[in-house]
Predict the structure.
Amino acid sequence: MPNRRRTAAGLTAAVAVAGAAVLAAAPAAQATVVDVNYACVTKIGPKDAVSPVDIKAVKSGSGYTITMSFDKGVSDSPIELGKGVMTPRAELVLGGAASGTVKVKGTPNTAAIPPDTPIRIGTLTGTFTPTKNGKVTFTAGTLIVHALGMDAAECKPKNNPAPSLELDVTGLSGGDADPPAGNDDDGDDNGSGSELPKTGPLDSAMALGTLGGTVLLTGAAGVLWLTRRTAR
Protein backbone atom coordinates (compact mmCIF):
# COMPACT_ATOMS: atom_id res chain seq x y z
CA MET A 1 0.00 0.00 0.00
CA PRO A 2 2.72 2.59 0.81
CA ASN A 3 4.33 1.90 -2.58
CA ARG A 4 1.00 2.43 -4.35
CA ARG A 5 0.50 5.71 -2.49
CA ARG A 6 3.98 6.91 -3.46
CA THR A 7 3.34 5.92 -7.07
CA ALA A 8 0.00 7.76 -7.14
CA ALA A 9 1.58 10.84 -5.56
CA GLY A 10 4.39 10.74 -8.12
CA LEU A 11 1.92 10.49 -11.01
CA THR A 12 -0.09 13.41 -9.62
CA ALA A 13 3.03 15.55 -9.33
CA ALA A 14 4.11 14.62 -12.85
CA VAL A 15 0.70 15.56 -14.26
CA ALA A 16 0.80 18.89 -12.38
CA VAL A 17 4.27 19.67 -13.70
CA ALA A 18 3.25 18.73 -17.23
CA GLY A 19 0.17 20.95 -16.98
CA ALA A 20 2.26 23.88 -15.74
CA ALA A 21 4.71 23.34 -18.60
CA VAL A 22 1.89 23.44 -21.14
CA LEU A 23 0.57 26.69 -19.65
CA ALA A 24 4.04 28.22 -19.60
CA ALA A 25 4.55 27.27 -23.23
CA ALA A 26 1.32 28.93 -24.37
CA PRO A 27 2.42 31.37 -27.09
CA ALA A 28 1.97 35.09 -26.47
CA ALA A 29 2.83 35.79 -30.09
CA GLN A 30 2.00 34.07 -33.36
CA ALA A 31 4.57 34.54 -36.11
CA THR A 32 4.08 33.58 -39.75
CA VAL A 33 6.62 33.76 -42.55
CA VAL A 34 4.98 35.92 -45.23
CA ASP A 35 6.07 36.34 -48.83
CA VAL A 36 6.51 40.06 -49.51
CA ASN A 37 6.68 41.27 -53.10
CA TYR A 38 8.94 44.31 -52.99
CA ALA A 39 8.98 46.95 -55.71
CA CYS A 40 12.31 48.75 -55.40
CA VAL A 41 13.35 52.12 -56.77
CA THR A 42 17.13 52.04 -57.17
CA LYS A 43 19.83 54.26 -58.64
CA ILE A 44 20.02 51.91 -61.63
CA GLY A 45 16.29 51.63 -62.25
CA PRO A 46 13.31 49.68 -60.86
CA LYS A 47 13.79 46.23 -59.39
CA ASP A 48 11.27 43.65 -58.15
CA ALA A 49 11.95 40.86 -55.70
CA VAL A 50 9.94 38.49 -53.54
CA SER A 51 11.33 37.57 -50.14
CA PRO A 52 9.81 35.62 -47.24
CA VAL A 53 9.77 37.91 -44.20
CA ASP A 54 9.83 36.70 -40.61
CA ILE A 55 9.05 39.03 -37.67
CA LYS A 56 9.49 38.00 -34.04
CA ALA A 57 9.06 39.68 -30.63
CA VAL A 58 10.88 38.98 -27.36
CA LYS A 59 9.82 40.61 -24.07
CA SER A 60 12.41 43.07 -22.82
CA GLY A 61 11.64 45.17 -19.76
CA SER A 62 8.49 47.22 -20.33
CA GLY A 63 8.63 46.62 -24.10
CA TYR A 64 9.59 44.11 -26.74
CA THR A 65 12.63 43.59 -28.91
CA ILE A 66 11.40 43.19 -32.49
CA THR A 67 13.45 41.35 -35.10
CA MET A 68 12.81 41.22 -38.86
CA SER A 69 14.63 38.78 -41.11
CA PHE A 70 14.61 38.06 -44.85
CA ASP A 71 15.01 34.69 -46.50
CA LYS A 72 16.11 36.09 -49.86
CA GLY A 73 17.83 39.16 -51.26
CA VAL A 74 15.66 42.04 -52.46
CA SER A 75 17.93 43.98 -54.82
CA ASP A 76 21.39 43.94 -56.38
CA SER A 77 24.20 46.29 -57.25
CA PRO A 78 26.08 46.66 -60.57
CA ILE A 79 29.29 47.05 -58.61
CA GLU A 80 30.78 45.21 -55.70
CA LEU A 81 29.76 46.49 -52.28
CA GLY A 82 32.71 46.29 -49.93
CA LYS A 83 32.54 45.09 -46.38
CA GLY A 84 30.64 47.45 -44.05
CA VAL A 85 29.25 49.84 -46.70
CA MET A 86 25.64 48.58 -46.73
CA THR A 87 23.15 49.07 -43.87
CA PRO A 88 19.44 48.21 -44.16
CA ARG A 89 16.55 49.74 -42.26
CA ALA A 90 12.80 49.25 -42.44
CA GLU A 91 9.43 50.22 -41.03
CA LEU A 92 6.91 47.76 -39.65
CA VAL A 93 3.27 48.82 -39.85
CA LEU A 94 1.30 48.31 -36.62
CA GLY A 95 -2.33 47.26 -36.50
CA GLY A 96 -4.95 46.02 -34.05
CA ALA A 97 -4.47 47.53 -30.59
CA ALA A 98 -1.66 49.83 -31.82
CA SER A 99 -1.10 52.18 -34.72
CA GLY A 100 1.83 53.82 -36.46
CA THR A 101 5.13 52.14 -37.28
CA VAL A 102 8.11 50.54 -35.59
CA LYS A 103 11.54 51.30 -37.01
CA VAL A 104 14.02 48.44 -37.27
CA LYS A 105 17.62 48.63 -38.39
CA GLY A 106 20.30 46.17 -39.40
CA THR A 107 24.06 46.11 -39.02
CA PRO A 108 26.59 46.78 -41.82
CA ASN A 109 27.37 43.86 -44.10
CA THR A 110 30.13 41.68 -42.69
CA ALA A 111 31.41 40.53 -46.09
CA ALA A 112 31.73 42.04 -49.55
CA ILE A 113 28.73 41.65 -51.85
CA PRO A 114 29.65 40.72 -55.45
CA PRO A 115 28.18 42.74 -58.33
CA ASP A 116 24.85 41.71 -59.84
CA THR A 117 24.15 39.52 -56.83
CA PRO A 118 20.96 39.81 -54.73
CA ILE A 119 21.77 41.78 -51.59
CA ARG A 120 21.14 39.59 -48.58
CA ILE A 121 19.53 41.57 -45.79
CA GLY A 122 20.56 40.48 -42.32
CA THR A 123 18.41 40.68 -39.20
CA LEU A 124 16.91 44.08 -38.46
CA THR A 125 16.19 44.99 -34.83
CA GLY A 126 14.00 47.58 -33.13
CA THR A 127 11.95 48.21 -29.99
CA PHE A 128 8.19 48.27 -29.46
CA THR A 129 6.74 49.71 -26.24
CA PRO A 130 2.99 49.07 -25.98
CA THR A 131 0.63 51.57 -24.36
CA LYS A 132 -2.44 49.37 -23.95
CA ASN A 133 -3.45 45.75 -23.80
CA GLY A 134 -4.69 43.86 -26.83
CA LYS A 135 -3.53 42.06 -29.95
CA VAL A 136 -1.00 44.01 -32.03
CA THR A 137 -0.09 43.03 -35.59
CA PHE A 138 3.21 43.74 -37.36
CA THR A 139 3.34 43.94 -41.16
CA ALA A 140 6.34 44.51 -43.40
CA GLY A 141 6.53 48.09 -44.64
CA THR A 142 9.10 50.18 -46.50
CA LEU A 143 12.64 48.82 -46.69
CA ILE A 144 15.64 51.09 -47.34
CA VAL A 145 19.06 49.81 -48.43
CA HIS A 146 21.69 52.39 -47.52
CA ALA A 147 24.93 51.81 -49.40
CA LEU A 148 27.99 53.85 -50.39
CA GLY A 149 26.80 56.81 -48.32
CA MET A 150 23.33 57.08 -49.86
CA ASP A 151 19.92 55.41 -49.90
CA ALA A 152 20.64 53.18 -52.87
CA ALA A 153 17.27 51.39 -52.91
CA GLU A 154 13.81 52.07 -51.51
CA CYS A 155 11.55 49.02 -51.57
CA LYS A 156 7.83 48.98 -50.84
CA PRO A 157 5.50 45.98 -50.63
CA LYS A 158 3.12 45.93 -53.59
CA ASN A 159 1.15 42.78 -52.78
CA ASN A 160 -0.56 44.07 -49.61
CA PRO A 161 1.08 41.40 -47.44
CA ALA A 162 -0.57 39.88 -44.40
CA PRO A 163 0.88 40.54 -40.93
CA SER A 164 3.96 38.51 -40.11
CA LEU A 165 3.38 38.71 -36.37
CA GLU A 166 0.44 38.98 -33.98
CA LEU A 167 1.49 39.93 -30.45
CA ASP A 168 -0.89 39.56 -27.52
CA VAL A 169 -0.08 42.39 -25.10
CA THR A 170 -1.37 41.78 -21.56
CA GLY A 171 -0.69 42.91 -18.02
CA LEU A 172 -0.41 46.65 -18.60
CA SER A 173 -1.85 48.58 -15.66
CA GLY A 174 -4.43 51.06 -16.90
CA GLY A 175 -3.67 50.02 -20.46
CA ASP A 176 -7.13 48.93 -21.51
CA ALA A 177 -8.45 50.21 -24.79
CA ASP A 178 -11.60 51.69 -23.20
CA PRO A 179 -11.74 53.61 -19.90
CA PRO A 180 -13.59 51.84 -17.06
CA ALA A 181 -17.27 52.69 -16.62
CA GLY A 182 -18.17 55.31 -14.05
CA ASN A 183 -14.91 57.17 -14.40
CA ASP A 184 -16.29 60.17 -16.22
CA ASP A 185 -14.81 63.45 -15.02
CA ASP A 186 -17.13 65.58 -17.12
CA GLY A 187 -20.00 65.48 -14.63
CA ASP A 188 -21.27 68.68 -13.05
CA ASP A 189 -19.88 68.46 -9.53
CA ASN A 190 -19.38 72.21 -9.13
CA GLY A 191 -23.00 73.30 -9.04
CA SER A 192 -24.26 75.87 -6.51
CA GLY A 193 -27.41 73.95 -5.53
CA SER A 194 -28.37 72.70 -2.11
CA GLU A 195 -25.96 69.76 -2.20
CA LEU A 196 -22.69 70.19 -0.36
CA PRO A 197 -19.53 69.29 -2.22
CA LYS A 198 -18.17 65.81 -1.56
CA THR A 199 -15.33 65.80 0.94
CA GLY A 200 -12.54 63.40 1.62
CA PRO A 201 -11.04 62.38 4.95
CA LEU A 202 -8.97 65.56 5.24
CA ASP A 203 -11.99 67.75 4.54
CA SER A 204 -14.01 65.80 7.13
CA ALA A 205 -11.30 66.36 9.74
CA MET A 206 -11.27 70.09 9.00
CA ALA A 207 -15.05 70.20 9.25
CA LEU A 208 -14.98 68.45 12.64
CA GLY A 209 -12.28 70.84 13.83
CA THR A 210 -14.40 73.84 12.82
CA LEU A 211 -17.40 72.37 14.60
CA GLY A 212 -15.34 71.77 17.73
CA GLY A 213 -14.10 75.37 17.64
CA THR A 214 -17.66 76.64 17.34
CA VAL A 215 -18.79 74.60 20.36
CA LEU A 216 -15.79 75.85 22.35
CA LEU A 217 -16.57 79.50 21.55
CA THR A 218 -20.22 78.99 22.42
CA GLY A 219 -19.23 77.51 25.80
CA ALA A 220 -16.89 80.42 26.51
CA ALA A 221 -19.63 82.92 25.69
CA GLY A 222 -21.94 81.11 28.13
CA VAL A 223 -19.37 81.31 30.90
CA LEU A 224 -18.90 85.06 30.31
CA TRP A 225 -22.65 85.61 30.40
CA LEU A 226 -23.01 83.71 33.67
CA THR A 227 -20.07 85.61 35.15
CA ARG A 228 -21.65 88.95 34.30
CA ARG A 229 -25.00 87.94 35.86
CA THR A 230 -23.22 86.89 39.05
CA ALA A 231 -21.35 90.20 39.21
CA ARG A 232 -24.67 92.06 39.15
Remarks:
- Confidence is low (pLDDT under 50) at residues 7-26, 178-232.
